[in-house]
Design a protein that fits this description.
This protein is α/β, with parallel strands linked by helices. The chain is built from 17 helices and 14 strands. A five-stranded parallel sheet has the order 4-7-10-3-11. Strands 12-13-14 form a three-stranded mixed sheet. The chain has a two-stranded antiparallel ribbon with strand order 1-2. The longest helix is centred in the first third of the chain and has 20 residues.
Length: about 400
């Protein structure tokens, strides 16, 4: 009896390559798969990839990652961790419950907090940890289509470029739009004249935030009829908006009736201001100047508090990539030991608070302090360099100490 073979590729029947029999004809498993690809493309492969592109981490695991890089802001980190978990659970797991066709809305986030409090850092930290592309844009640079400036859709071009032009990867990325408060309209009444960078930009953002098919120029710039477009579906892109919202506390206080801190308390401290911001409601943001449609698409609101002097010192020393650790490594490469006295660190923190630049100002201050020392660094091999409070105030020079050789 002759051995059965595939009528298309002549492969013999085996345990690993079974045959389907027809009327005097056979087809093997490999040919069935090839035929499916010819007729239906790679749809089956794409769907299986999209279902298993990312390992899901629990909110506690995500917050633990944030704790390693972001000091303080526990409540904001908790809100953000839950939002990120729900967002990617929605992408990869929402269709795993058989018979339930409920569609879960995506979890876009609004960060409210002073400059340098950690808004951008939180978004960057989790994007890097999850290995998803992130595009960061400044809302003040955006304009409506047709005006001089950067089109809102160029944010998606930037995301695609960060994703190495991988559309599927870009469609599961994160977009962070900073200084969203700077495009608030002046007052609640709509302007009669055209608004180039305020309400018009908010309206333009609605389309991409809510989820739609958007044609973008892969190379950026203005659109023109003869260029090639890439189409991006924003349904699964997580949008994070952030802003300082100066004056929002006054709006909240007015809503609460003014005497939110008890009788006869006219002056409020920073702690009370921070507590007021945590009571923010959608109507407060409408009064501030964000359009209701945009607020309705930013489902999770995370409020960040102004950093204290103690927080600043912890930021200098504790995170995995803290500024002090980075400088110590730079010095160690040149065989130099770098030491900061506690009072010096407090002085740096006080200077950052005085400049009102938040944590991002710490790097600038450190560069100013260290530039002269770094200039001489290659000649300091074998020394210990001690930074005192006087170095920060520019009243003294660093202490250079040569370690004593141990006697035999």
């Amino acid at each position: 009896m002759s051995k059965k073979v595939c009528s298309f590729c002549s492969a013999p029947e085996s345990v690993d390559n079974r045959l389907l029999a027809g009327e005097d004809i056979y087809i093997c498993e490999n040919c069935v798969v090839s035929a499916y690809k010819i007729f239906f493309g790679d749809e089956g492969e794409e769907s299986s990839e999209s279902e298993l592109d990312m390992e899901l981490f629990t909110p506690k695991e995500l917050k633990k990652v944030l704790d390693e890089y972001v000091i303080g802001q526990d409540e904001a980190k908790k809100v953000f961790a839950v939002s990120v978990y729900n967002h990617y659970k929605r992408i990869f797991k929402q269709h795993t419950i058989v018979g339930d066709d409920t569609e879960i809305q995506k979890s876009n986030v609004l960060f409210i907090g002073p400059t340098g409090s950690g808004k951008t850092l939180m978004a960057q930290t989790l994007a890097k940890f999850l290995d998803v592309p992130i595009a960061i844009a400044d809302a003040t640079s955006l304009t409506e289509a047709g005006y001089v400036g950067e089109d809102v859709e160029n944010i998606l071009t930037r995301l695609l470029q960060v994703a190495d032009n991988d559309i599927k990867k870009a469609e599961q990325g994160i977009v962070f739009i900073d200084e969203i408060d700077k495009i608030a309209r002046l007052g609640e009444n709509r302007s009669i004249t055209r608004d180039v960078s305020g309400e018009g930009v908010q309206q333009a953002l609605l389309k991409i935030i809510e989820g739609s098919q958007v044609n973008i120029s892969p190379k950026g710039g203005r659109k023109h009829p003869n260029q090639e477009f890439a189409q991006i579906d924003t349904t699964n892109i997580m949008f994070i908006c952030g802003g300082a919202f100066d004056g929002l506390d006054e709006i909240i206080k007015k809503r609460l009736g003014g005497n939110v801190l008890g009788f006869g308390q006219d002056k409020r401290g920073k702690k009370e201001d921070a507590d007021l911001i945590s009571m923010v409601e959608p109507d407060d943001l409408v009064h501030y100047g964000l359009i209701p449609e945009l607020i309705g698409r930013l489902h999770s609101v995370a409020t960040l508090k102004e950093l204290s002097k103690e927080d600043m010192v912890r930021i200098l020393t504790e995170p995995k990539n803290s500024i002090v650790k980075q400088y110590k490594k730079l010095f160690a490469i040149d065989d130099v030991v770098l030491t900061f006295e506690d009072e010096a660190l407090l002085a740096i923190a006080e200077l950052a608070l005085k400049r009102k630049t938040g944590a991002r100002g710490l790097r600038t201050i450190m560069e100013e302090i260290m530039v002269d020392i770094m200039y001489e660094l290659p000649e300091l091999a074998g020394y210990e360099v001690i930074i005192t409070k006087g170095v920060i105030s520019k009243e003294a020079k660093p202490i250079y100490r040569k370690p004593q050789k141990k006697s035999a």
